[in-house]
């Protein structure tokens, strides 16, 4: 071994923790209590002049968020961010890749964690008004759009430091779970699911930390009581299911050098689960490089044959009853009554910070609070022309991100064939905000958002949503009406498409 330099991968750290911070900062208390007892020395201090700090070797950190990330990640050799050695993924499994070379995805996730923790800090410290009830309420609404396509704030199969820190900052600002429930509202289902999951995870961590304190020689003897959040509720169906968005991260974490065993992690949200298979485990029925036994092949063939026979029998029965069902079934042809078009008012508008085509708007459509909607109208309207504008809003569209902005709905406009001329479709003067626009001869309740999206109903109905020769909004010639009269293009654009 002559000439070989051997370096230790162990890390020893000293944490200086004021008792005042221990009593008030739940995340600091939990992470400190869970930190490996043989790698960390905790110095509790009552001195008001002492600050929260972490010393590792010659370096001392004093910034709270940086200390927490070091305790969970590379500072202590990823002790709290490794599937193989711990069930905790405080950095989503991304810090563990540092030994093998961080991937771009992990680098983005780590940067995202830092950014979200900064948002949490702005709420706690009320920086630039970030801790006001108005700002917190707006954030809860914006999170709903952001979380509509992901489980947590950064790609991870479990809640990370970012999730737990932001959650604690929010619920600590809100005085009670009942008040939080009201602020979230029924429509923000993704925010609600996230809040419930983070709260449940923190309760589990609290129990783990208390047990560790009982058996370690830590100077910490108690932990602050967690603030009241939302009580998880059973759901008949998952809030969302987008497939393998977090499975990729889980698989990457499972393949790090620290983990040689199989990995299986799942999102602990009601009705939605994303799990990563153990490394090297074949898919059901075999896969590339996997040789099945003769018995397995035979069983698989029998299963396929049975399934095919069942499908054929079901189809035969369906064909036999098709004529009778058609004769007795009610008229369920898709029509414009499936759309929830309402009278709205733009109460606030501003230019999108990174898109030169989009306006961002808060639109009152008669709900508890205004909707956030993005519209590509900057080429056709000035900002001051957007303010306090009465408009028609298609409300039963799923929330989606437009340029990073959570948009939930569509402000309807009339446009010519090549989209060089665009003008608002508007309700008649005197129409009530939130009133639904109905079309002559078509009666029915609007379809839910998920069905509109899944069945592509708007795509099917949109070609017939137009203005007639008088500039009035029609669907297949039937006029769009409110209690105050007919809706129209604001400048009377005739024979135009409305969308």
From TrEMBL:
Transmembrane segments: none
One of the record's GO molecular function terms: tRNA binding
Coiled coil (residue ranges): none
Gene3D superfamilies: 1.20.1050.130, Nucleic acid-binding proteins
PROSITE patterns named among the record's database cross-references: TRBD
Compositional bias segments (type: Low complexity): 253-267, 320-329
Domain TRNA-binding positions: 335-438
Region (Disordered): 253-329
Signal sequence segment: none
A Pfam family matched in the record: tRNA_bind
The entry's keywords: RNA-binding, tRNA-binding
Bias kind Basic and acidic residues: ranges: 294-303
Superkingdom, taxonomy of origin: Eukaryota
PANTHER family: AMINOACYL TRNA SYNTHASE COMPLEX-INTERACTING MULTIFUNCTIONAL PROTEIN 1, TRNA-AMINOACYLATION COFACTOR ARC1 FAMILY MEMBER
Protein name: tRNA-binding domain-containing protein
């Amino acid at each position: 071994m002559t000439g070989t330099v051997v370096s230790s991968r162990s890390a020893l750290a000293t944490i200086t923790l004021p008792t005042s911070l221990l009593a008030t900062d739940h995340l600091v208390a939990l992470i400190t209590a869970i930190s490996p007892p043989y790698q960390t020395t905790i110095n509790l201090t009552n001195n008001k002049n002492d600050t929260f700090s972490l010393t590792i070797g010659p370096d001392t950190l004093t910034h709270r968020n940086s200390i927490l990330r070091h305790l969970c990640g590379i500072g202590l050799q990823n002790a709290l961010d490794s599937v193989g050695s711990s069930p905790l993924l405080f950095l989503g499994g991304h810090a563990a890749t540092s030994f093998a070379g961080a991937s771009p995805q992990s680098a983005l996730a780590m940067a995202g964690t830092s950014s979200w923790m900064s948002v949490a800090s702005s709420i706690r410290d009320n920086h630039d008004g970030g801790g006001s009830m108005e700002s917190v309420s707006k954030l809860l609404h914006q999170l709903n759009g952001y979380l509509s396509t992901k489980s947590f704030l950064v790609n991870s199969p479990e809640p990370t430091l970012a999730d737990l820190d932001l959650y604690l900052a929010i619920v600590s600002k809100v005085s009670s779970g009942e008040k939080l429930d009201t602020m979230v509202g029924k429509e923000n289902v993704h925010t609600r699911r996230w809040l419930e999951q983070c709260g449940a995870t923190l309760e589990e961590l609290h129990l783990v930390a208390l047990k560790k304190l009982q058996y370690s020689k830590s100077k910490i003897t108690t932990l602050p009581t967690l603030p009241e959040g939302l009580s998880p509720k059973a759901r008949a169906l998952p809030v969302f299911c987008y497939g393998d968005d977090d499975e990729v991260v889980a698989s990457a974490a499972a393949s790090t050098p620290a983990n040689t065993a199989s990995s299986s992690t799942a999102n602990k949200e009601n009705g939605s689960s994303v799990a990563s298979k153990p490394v090297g485990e074949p898919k059901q029925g075999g896969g590339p490089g996997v040789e099945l036994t003769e018995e397995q092949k035979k069983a698989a063939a029998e299963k396929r044959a049975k399934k095919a026979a069942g499908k054929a029998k079901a189809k035969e029965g369906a064909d036999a009853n098709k004529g009778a069902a058609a004769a007795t079934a009610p008229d369920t042809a898709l029509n414009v009554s499936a759309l929830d078009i309402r009278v709205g008012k733009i109460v606030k508008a501003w230019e999108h910070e990174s898109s030169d085509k989009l306006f961002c708007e808060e639109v009152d459509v008669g709900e508890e609070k205004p909707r956030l909607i993005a519209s590509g109208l900057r080429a056709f309207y000035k900002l001051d022309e957007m303010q306090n504008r009465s408009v028609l809003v298609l409300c039963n569209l799923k929330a989606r991100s437009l340029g990073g902005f959570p948009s939930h709905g569509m402000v309807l406009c009339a446009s010519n064939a090549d989209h060089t001329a665009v003008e608002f479709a508007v309700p008649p003067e005197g129409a009530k905000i939130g009133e639904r626009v109905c079309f002559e001869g078509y009666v029915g309740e609007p379809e839910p958002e998920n069905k509109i999206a899944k069945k592509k109903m708007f795509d099917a109905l949109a070609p017939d949503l137009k203005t007639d020769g008088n500039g009035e909004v029609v669907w297949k010639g039937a006029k769009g009406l409110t209690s105050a009269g007919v809706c129209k293009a604001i400048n009377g654009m005739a024979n135009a498409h409305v969308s």
